[in-house]
Amino acid sequence: MAAYTCDECGMSVGVMTCGTCDVELVHDTIVKGDGSSVHVCACPECAGKIKSPMCCGQDMECELN
What we know:
It contains no helices and 8 strands. With 65 residues, it is mainly beta. β3 and β4 form a beta hairpin. The chain is flat, with a radius of gyration of 12 Å.
């Protein structure tokens, strides 16, 4: 299970599910046209994606297993 944690305050977010498919979202990274990358939560069923969560004004990080 992917858990996103805030480096600033320690807040964490556990299981997030797709509202359409009701399956657990997985951590993924997309590469933008300028070559920079963005961390996202992706649905393995419908390929929907959302920006990874933020806390304290910064992206929360996900440690991959």
